[in-house]
Automatic annotation (TrEMBL):
It comes from the Eukaryota. Residues 471-748 form the Protein kinase domain. It is a single-pass type I membrane protein. Keywords: ATP-binding, Cell membrane, Disulfide bond, Glycoprotein, Kinase, Lectin, Membrane, Nucleotide-binding, Receptor, Serine/threonine-protein kinase, Signal, Transferase, Transmembrane, Transmembrane helix. This is Receptor-like serine/threonine-protein kinase.
Amino acid sequence: MAMNPIFLFGFTLFFFIGGLDSALVAGRISTIGHGDELNFTDSLVSQGGNFTLGFFTFPITNHSYLGIWYTKDDQLRRVWVANPNNPLSNSSVLTIDNTTGILKITDRGRTVLNIYDQVSRNATATLEDSGNLVLKTENQILWQSFDYPTDTLLPGMKIGTNLVTGKNWSLTSWFSESIPASGTFKLTWEDPEPLAGPGELVIYRDGQRYWTSGLLSYQNFPNMPMLNGPNSAFHYNLLPVSNKEEKYLTYSVYDEPLLMWRLEPRGGIVGSDTYITPYRFCYGYQSGSNDGCVSGFGLPSCRSRKDTFMQKQARVEGNPVSQRDDNSGLSISDCMEKCWNNCSCVGFTTSNSNGTGCITWTGDLVYQETSGVEGIYVMVHENSPKRKIWVQVVIAMAISLLILLSGYSCYLIRRKYQQREVEKRKRKEYLKELTTSDSFNNANEVEGDGKEGHGLNILGFTTMMEATNNFSNENKLGQGGFGPVYKGKLRDGREIAVKRLSRNSGQGLVEFKNELILISKLQHTNLVRVLGCCIHGEEKMLIYEFMPNKSLDFFIFDPTKKELLDWGKRLNIIDGVAQGLLYLHKYSRMKVIHRDLKANNVLLDENMNAKISDFGMARIFKQNETEATTNRVVGTYGYMSPEYAMDGIFSIKSDVFSFGILILEIVSGRRNTSFYHFDDHSLNLIGYAWDLWKHGTALELKDPSLGSSCATNQLLRIIHVGLLCVQESATDRPTMSDVISMLSNETMVLPAPKQPAFFTGRNVPNTMTSNGGTSKDCSLNNLTISIMEAR
């Protein structure tokens, strides 16, 4: 079937126009012609795909522009902007007027900007692969973007002057990174007299010479070492031209993408990835360091040639003294100038989000360097080459001195370590000597456990001085035959009692040895715990846990304080002492006879729980040993069993006797060494209790301060047990196992007590000891020692 020619022509024209519109929308074409429009969302792409032309918007300012950028540039750096000083709306279009051929930007039919305002026919605008937007007819170039550079010089662009037309090719920096409007700096090419050289690059700041590259020589500039230096990423082919028509500089790079020179808002020239001019400000004086800075106003009197501003990716800490000026007409360069000329200023940055305005800081500026934040500029002091050499010499000397000091320090440390080891070995040897001396209480009978020093915790003398405030009188708790006792406090907050051996005390040395032997072997809730010892030269100390309520005698024999001990507390104390003695006699790792149990040596913790203390006179028995004899009777008169006081024979029954006396003292609130008138004679507490028991009036022994707080049957049973413990014959006395059974089992039938050992006032005065000497019983705050009298 034949096709109508008119229909065929219309069909072809429809598809041509439709195809053109589709290509524009897709952004795949590089040219627009008469009557064509490039909408806000459209773009031109050069034939090889190197460059893109289109509209873009800065979110910070919401201003839009028409520009060109490398298609594959992830940073979308605009290399040319058509309207840097005339922001657009998002309804703008680029078009070649269908009637006049003028290249212009319109907004809803209204002309906003004429890019080329001469009438032309059949003109087209093409984006070339060089990044040049060219408006031309078939035979003539009418206009090109390379003749109107903004802040970026691309390969093939010229910077210089057309001597025929007077056209000047120069770069003008943006006002800020988000404002393309003309900024403070301008880059030009200046060609001096022919004999002076091929020319140099010059940066002007507000019309005044700011920086120069130095004359081009052998493809390099003296003040641009990064351009074609050994560390340069690219090799630029610099092409200066000077003739009667033109004087300019251009450059080329072989087959390298994203090449550009960009004049940034603060006055430096940036290549594709790095600065090709010194990364710093110029401060208006010739620094003499080949950085190209030009003399201007000179160096302020308050500034040094070593002063410079360094950009830091940092956040300012605290609230430093600052001054803020939000004037949008101030650029980053203006902020630098304000801070540089203010002698108190130590840093600055912009105040507005669009990179305008100023914040300056004075005084102390504290900042924390971190990534992902806006940069600030901080005043630092750079070193000159001479100073660097001097610093290097100082560093070398310091390192040498450090090596010498380190060697000497190592020698001193090693020597001190050796001295400590010698001292430590001496302490161990002394401890071993103390705890294994055959001349002392058969210490060799103690079973060894392989631990050096029997598991003792040895504390330093310095620690003891610190804990006791240099053994001050304010910390002194009391004085015994062994020496003074001090209250102390360790660094961890624990309160302690420190028994310090007197150098002239033979008794104290014996006790010290004895407690060293027992320290790691005995551990029970009703025994005072020894925390360790301290041996420093002639100084010897024992460290105990501190008992805040002192000893039993502090309460039980005081007319006022005894009222704090009700019947329940007294029963608890009796039970605690009984449990402690049972542990010593039967359940500890060795059989131990205390030999000095009395109210003074029963300490009370914060809850009034009883703890037996002071093992200085204790003796260790073998498991199959039942009694021993000594020629040296030690202890406190009034608490000694008769067989021990008269014949030096002691056993576990000796402690049972002392425990019985303690029971009678707790029940009555009276000392055993006190004498009581009964009928026609005076008796001590044991005799007095026995006579009351025989006459059936044992309730009269009760401490009046108890009132009616105790049950009669319970009171009589406790007195009964006490009298069983103080019977004259050791074989008649119960063991501590029996005693605890008697105390805890009220249904258990108790045997009748036999006559105890006691004396009357006619025979022995109450102030005499077993050998007729004066009784001297020393009671301390939480430790007690009795004077030992030999028979």
